[in-house]
Amino acid sequence: MKTRAILLAAGKGTRMKSALPKVLHSLCGRPLLWYVVTALRHAGIDEIIVVANEELQGKLDAFDVRTVLQKEQLGTGHAVKIALDAMEQDADGKIVVASGDMPLVPGALYAEVLAALARDVAMVLMTAKMPMPSNFGRIIRKDAAIEQIVEVRDATSEQLAVDEMNAGVYAFAESALRQVVEQLNNTNAQGEYYLTDAVAHFVRDRKTVLPLLVEDHRHVLGINDRVELADAHAQLNARLCHSHMLAGVTIIDPLTTYLEPELQIGADTVIYPNTHIGRLSDIGRGCVVGPNTRISASVLDDDVHVRESVIFDSHIGSGTTIGPFAHIRGGADLGQNVRVGNFVEIKKSRLAKGAKASHLSYLGDATIGEDTNIGAGTITCNYDGQNKHQTIIGKNVRIGSNTSIIAPRTIGDGALTGASSVVTHDIAPGERVAGNPARPLGKRR
Ligand code: UD1
Ligand code: CA
Q1: Can the peptide bond before residue 440 be classed as cis, meaning omega within 30 degrees of 0?
Q2: Minimum-distance ligand to the CA of 74?
Q3: Residue 27 in contact with residue 236, Cβ under 8 Å?
Q4: Integer Cα distance of 423 and 407 in angstroms
Q5: If you take atom 34 of ligand 1, which residue's CA is the nearest one?
Q6: Would you write out the chain's pLDDT as a tens digit for each of its 445 residues?
Q7: Residues having CB within 6 Å of any atom of ligand 1
């Protein structure tokens, strides 16, 4: 028997006031929907059917889910019915219903509603004690047993005072769900087919409905506007920092350290404030990162120090120090014990072990050998207005301050350029050059 999930995501999300569908808004570097899909997979759900509107439907290729189109948003009950109509029937099936705008629900909660769906139970739902006032549907009980869910816009003031709410996380026996969606009507304040009315129908038909109270209401916060998006960001970021700290990472200030899911950060790494780390970055042990640093899609080996700098799409070898105010990008690959200092930009270049570029340089499309020193103000002039060209610099080279290297150029091992050289020819190993254009001055001792 397969367990399947219907993921509701067709709502218009009008309160976001956005051209982007709500469930594709970003939270800690991932779309909201990614979190829900990931949590459902963790809960062991075999197949996910996303109910989407026209706008969203074409934008879900990255998620590996089935989609069904809900042309008109006639309510959550209607959305579930559309999904069921598109799904193969399974008389013993179990179906989780989740919302695309609830990214903080951990996989364990979906697993919990599923596990509670015993043979004789028609529906399990999560309830939560939410802070008041709240827009969540109210759980109305009679003699302790659940009787119905009342939506806020249909509730009496007495019902609104109830502080137990419908979290919007459900598991259903498929056969019972298929029956009940045919019975829903839209005679309510919003003129919508409410999935939540299923409760009253089941109770009337003497079917078992099992409410489970969640321990932490923050897990079931929904996102309807950008204020709630910011609240969710704070929650999730705190959760991410928390788990890295417990795994041995020192985070000086979790409130100003911005992480994403699926990062690797080694033990004894210290992260200083105002630092962003994202896009599957992998940071080694004993690194010092920040303050005021951004690292994205990059790998840092052990004992790397980065301060006040930006590193995108790059690899940094162990023992290397970067910054302050450096910009490393575009597939740069820095070896061990490299030094990159202030106002140095490195793009798509390789610096071998022990190379140094300490001040004010641009190194693009370059390969730089071991222990070579790049003087202050050096520029690889890699772009001729049409194409990019390579600069290859050997080992133990001394590039003098303010050297311009007009690529494509090769500079041999042990060569030296004088200050303000403009290098327009290749330089042989051990050769000294200076001037504009740079001319040979004989061998270096
Ligand atoms: C819903 C519940 C409410 C619960 C709350 C928890 C109903 C009627 N109410 O209210 O009891 O406390 O969730 O967060 O279910 N959607 C569709 N098609 C539609 C309408 C909605 O796919 O026609 C999707 C939305 O994109 C969203 C989800 O269903 O992901 C919930 O809809 P929303 O309008 O946000 O319901 P709430 O008012 O939050
Ligand atoms: Ca909602």
Answers
A1: no
A2: 1
A3: yes
A4: 9
A5: 11
A6: 679 999 999 988 899 999 999 999 999 999 999 999 999 999 999 899 999 999 999 999 999 899 999 999 999 999 999 999 999 999 999 999 999 999 999 999 999 999 999 999 999 999 999 999 999 999 999 999 999 999 999 999 999 999 999 999 999 999 999 999 999 999 999 999 999 999 999 999 999 999 999 999 999 999 999 999 999 999 999 999 999 999 999 999 999 999 999 999 999 999 999 999 999 999 999 999 999 999 999 999 999 999 999 999 999 999 999 999 999 999 999 999 999 999 999 999 999 999 999 999 999 999 999 999 999 999 999 999 999 999 999 999 999 999 999 999 999 999 999 999 999 999 999 999 999 999 999 998 7
A7: 8-11, 51, 70, 73-76, 78-79, 99-101, 136-137, 149, 151, 165-166, 168, 194-196, 222
Q: Which CATH number among 3.30.160.100, 3.40.50.300, 2.160.10.10, 3.10.129.10 corresponds to the domain 226-443?
A: 2.160.10.10
Task: Answer for the pair 399, 373: CB distance below 8 angstroms, yes or no.
Answer: yes
Q: Which ligand lies nearest the alpha carbon of 98? A: 1
Q: Is 3-220 assigned to CATH 3.40.50.2300?
A: no
Contact 444, 432 (CB under 8 A): yes
Task: Report, as residue numbers or ranges, the catalytic residues.
Answer: 359
CB of 193 closer than 8 Å to CB of 78:
yes
Contacts for 254 with CB less than 8 Å, ≥ 6 apart = 237, 238, 241, 242, 245
Instruction: Write out the residues surrounding ion ligand 2, Cβ under 5 A.
Output: 101, 222
CA atoms of 141 and 168, how far apart (whole Å): 17
Domain boundaries, the chain: 3-220, 226-443
The Cα-based distances of 244 to 31, 256, 270, 390 in angstroms read 22, 15, 11, 40
CA–centroid distance, 72 to ligand 1, in Å, is 14
Instruction: Tell me how far the alpha carbon of residue 244 lies from the centroid of ligand 1, in angstroms.
Output: 33
Residue 137 alpha carbon, nearest atom of ligand 1: 11
